[in-house]
Amino acid sequence: MVLESLIGEKNIRKHPIYMLLITFIISIGSIIAAYHIAPSHSSVLSVAFITIGLIPVVHNILTKEEYEEAIERKSSVTFFARHFNLILIYVLIFVGVILAFTFAYVAFPADVNQTVFSEQIKSFCWMQPGSCEGSIPLSITGQATAAGLDYCRVPEMQDPFACSFVIFQNNAQVLIFIIILSLLYGAGAIYIIAWNASIIGLFFGEMILTFEYGKAFGFAILMVIGHGAPELFAYVFGALAGAVLSAMVSRGQFLSHEFSTIIKDVLFLAGLGLFSVAYGSFVEGVGIVGYADLSVILGFIYLLIIIFLVFFYGKKRIKK
């Protein structure tokens, strides 16, 4: 791939932040290309193009990282140290797609947005009905107003545990699908990650166009210290679990001495993903039924745990 060749795979692995730039450029190019090739299907095609563009880069990095980690598993290198770069790369891909779709949604004319982001708009209007008139966002109709998320607000779902279970069922299915896609296609889960990021990007774009900066900021906070962080890391852990297992299969390591360690890593990643889905679902359910402060506190605790793990176990120790 051109961008990977220009920047260099070693530079990307050494400085994962380059992945943010690569993702942004690929995403903008994919949106424009999809609109000109098949306007009526560009909302889905753009995400497919993003996936096609990113899979070779991620696959190459994944293969090299796993090859080196097969050696490091013999040393005292910790689990998070072995997988830190890969986890960060998936997170940066998610952020890069959000930034690209936000930028595109703000930059494109309203009539173009209605075509280019049609499927994302449907998802946005389902989650934010007050921000749409019918199935058209208010920035397009020109009737901006405040809106709230009504999901799980029906009387029978006021119980935070019942609401959380509904959310958990949906998110757990997505997690399983991500693991399967990653197992079959290596970095195939990028499509689901990019799709979710595209909807969030449209949300931020809509909030900017309707001057709902406070709402956009509040949503950004929830993404960092609310239910957003557990959900994102759940999908990243799931994607990595499938990808690591896929890399092992492709290298034929079934009878190798690293096999048991790789399986432990995969099971641990899948377990982390499931825990994060359950935790994130509970945090979201608590927030939706009216306990917003508790939701933020729980989300902040999760973020502190991640920071603790990365700080104490995310650095590769030099073997003496």
UniProtKB/TrEMBL annotation:
Superkingdom field: Archaea
Organism ancestry: Archaea, Candidatus Iainarchaeota, Candidatus Iainarchaeia, Candidatus Iainarchaeales, Candidatus Iainarchaeaceae
Segments passing through the bilayer: 17-38, 44-63, 84-108, 174-195, 207-226, 232-250, 262-282, 294-314
Alphabetical keyword list: Membrane, Transmembrane, Transmembrane helix
Transmembrane in keyword set: yes
Protein name: Stage II sporulation protein M
